[in-house]
Amino acid sequence: MALVLFPFSFGEVLAASGGERTEIEKMAALDAYAEQGGLVMQYTKPLLLIDQQIDLLISRGMEVDNRVRAVRYLNHINYYRFRAYWLPFEEKSAETEHQFKLGTTFDDALKLYLFDIKFRLLIMEAIERAEISLRTRFAQELALKYGSHADLDGELHGALLVGEPQAFDRLGVDDRWCRGSAQTMFY
User: Fold this and answer.
1) Which end of the chain, N or C, is less packed with Cβ atoms under 10 Å?
2) DSSP letter string over 65-97?
């Protein structure tokens, strides 16, 4: 299998070759581009089964204390996604590639992965709270100014379209509720 690397987007290739195409025509356009000097890279890495992936990690110096647990995680996380979490434990050396620092364990990378999951969930929770608070405050302002069913007024919708920086001024919404309310946003 070959991968064609374009110096520009696929959309530009299609536009230059006449726009709308079927999938087969798109693949033919890719092949034609590759034949005309497009950069082509052959995939040389063989498929490794989960047990082979673990063997590879061990051969590179990672300690795997619980192979069954490692198999379970790699079955659900994907080797290449999980790889980002063991990169800090790799040695930087000219003569070896992807060797782990002495004492690196599978659990070291797993702890980073689990921390990342928990951290992302905390961030998403904070974003959700901020979003709900902002939407609630905005709805209250609109209701105070235009009544309890302001959301049904089509003329108000047009004023809030993206690209109209003065929309709030035109609506007459008082933005003082935005300033200094970060303390009350997170309950």
Assistant:
1) N
2) S-HHHHHHHHHHH-HHHHHHHHGGGB---SS-S
Range picked from 89-103, 117-131, 168-182 for highest mean pLDDT: 117-131
171 with 127, same domain? yes
Dist CA 85 CA 62 (whole Å): 13
Q: 133: part of which helix (H) or strand (E)?
A: helix 106-146
Are 135 and 169 in the same domain? yes
Tokens 């702890």, residue? Answer: 111
Q: Cα 135 vs. chain centroid, distance in angstroms?
A: 25
Residue span of the structural domain in which 79 resides: 50-104
Convert the pLDDT of each residue in 146-167 to its tens digit: 888 877 777 666 555 544 555 5
Q: How far is CA 107 from the centre of its chain?
A: 24
3-state helix, strand, coil in the chain (%, to 5): 60, 5, 35
Confidence of residue 2 (pLDDT cuts 50, 70, 90): very low
- Are the CB atoms for 77 and 119 separated by under 8 Å? no
Q: Indicate the pTM of the whole model.
A: 0.57
Q: Token match 């599978």: residue?
A: 106
For the chain, the first-to-last Cα distance in angstroms comes to: 54
